Amino acid sequence: MKRLAGFLALGAGWLIGCGGGEDSSMEGMSAAEHAQMQAGGPQGELDSTGAMVRQPVHLSAAQARAIGVRYATVRRDSLTRTIRTVGLIQVPEPNIVDVTPKIDGFVEELFVDYTGQSVRRGQPLLTLYSPMLVAAQEELLTAMRLASQVDSSADEAWRNAQIMLEAARRRLVYFDITPEQIERVEATGEATKTLTLVAPVTGIVLEKHVVQGQRVMLGMHLYRLADLREMWVEGEVFEQDLQFVRTGSQAEIEVAAYPGERRVGRVSFVYPMVDERSRTNRVRITVPNRDMALKPGMYATIFFDALIGSDVIAIPLEAVVVTGVRNLVFVRDDEGMLMSREVVLGPRGGDRVQILEGLTEGETIVVSANFLIDAESRLGSSGGGMPGMPGMSGTRSGGAAVDTSQSQHSQDDTEGQS
């Protein structure tokens, strides 16, 4: 009966509180206090920036073990990070050469007749018949005969004959006729029907647009050759990582065709613009390809090993409490008090982060369970305590946690007896 009467009295009190008592209890409250009451009670003190004030927290050794607190000493060390991105393997633009005729003619014989064929510098590509080439050879032979008939004692005539001879030779050179072929015409004294076009570089035939017997015209695109002994890998890095990617810095790449095998290259170019939508910047790595294992069009994973600093203050990333407004670290003083301190973060390297301001070498910080400590620190500023944590149900103004577990047990015993 007593228990039933207690429930009835509690229900009556609740009905009264839901009635006109609410308005009377909030009379004289400010707008901020009213908002706090609507949110479920006081939320703690706020500083000038609107952030909640954290109160110092004291933990005994048993309490620290119970919630898994670990400490670390702030030290100076080298900090590195690995930037990883995806790139596309491409043919270096300076290594691409187009073969185009400088005269009209007909393809008599085709030596390089399929795409993908390897060629070396000076290798014959095709023989070309052209009336213009035949006429140029005849001019050369005529100039040779005139030069041989002029007496060397007649300076002016001999000089003019030599000028004509050199002009005839130069004309054939301008038609991409090799010096060896010109010497052969001069040695035999006869003009040949066809002359040979040779490969200007060593490489691979990327494109072929000519067949045997075809008529070719001035400037027509016959072949595209490329030297693949060196490749470009182009990828994109985020804007915040640009400070670690510089021209000349080392990079490594890995392709799916050869898993676990990394090739070393150098950053040869950083593009001068950032993509506005993706906030990334393109970079180019030049990689040797002597074994021709890298193929144009392959995807590659790019790794940049960047040195953030050789003597910097770096702490574990899990030691930082990110509030959205500030970055906090809990520092333990000589008396064992845990106090929040705002820090300025630098670049991140793996599971550690550089501290630009806020910590000094030799200090002891919390590196685990710091979110629980942060919650207790905030509850302490509002006069409450963290439920479910023995010995941490409240925080005094001096910073020591109040142990209310004994009083709670006494209250439970009293209720049980009633």
Summarize, please.
With 418 residues, this protein is an alpha+beta fold. Helix content is 27%, strand content 34%.
Characterization of the model:
This protein is of the alpha+beta class. Among the domains are: 42-78 and 311-409, conserved putative lor/sdh protein from methanococcus maripaludis s2 fold (Beta Barrel), CATH 2.40.420.20; 94-226, RNA polymerase II/Efflux pump adaptor protein, barrel-sandwich hybrid domain (OB fold (Dihydrolipoamide Acetyltransferase, E2P), Beta Barrel). Helix content is 27%, strand content 34%. The chain contains nine helices and 22 strands. The strands form four sheets. Strands 1, 2, 17, 18, 19 and 22 form a six-stranded antiparallel sheet that branches. A six-stranded antiparallel β-barrel has the order 3-12-15-14-13-16. Strand 14 and strand 15 (280-288) form a beta hairpin. Helix 5 runs antiparallel to helix 6.
Summarize the topology.
Elements: H1 2-18, H2 21-25, H3 31-38, E1 57-58, H4 61-67, E2 70-73, E3 76-90, E4 96-99, E5 105-110, E6 118-119, E7 124-129, H5 131-149, H6 155-174, H7 179-188, E8 194-198, E9 203-208, E10 215-216, E11 223-226, E12 230-238, E13 250-255, E14 263-274, E15 280-288, E16 299-316, E17 321-322, E18 327-332, E19 337-342, E20 344-349, E21 352-357, E22 364-368, H8 370-381, H9 405-417
Antiparallel strand pairs: 1-19, 2-22, 3-12, 3-16, 4-11, 5-7, 5-10, 6-9, 7-8, 9-11, 12-15, 13-14, 13-16, 14-15, 16-21, 17-18, 18-19, 18-22, 20-21
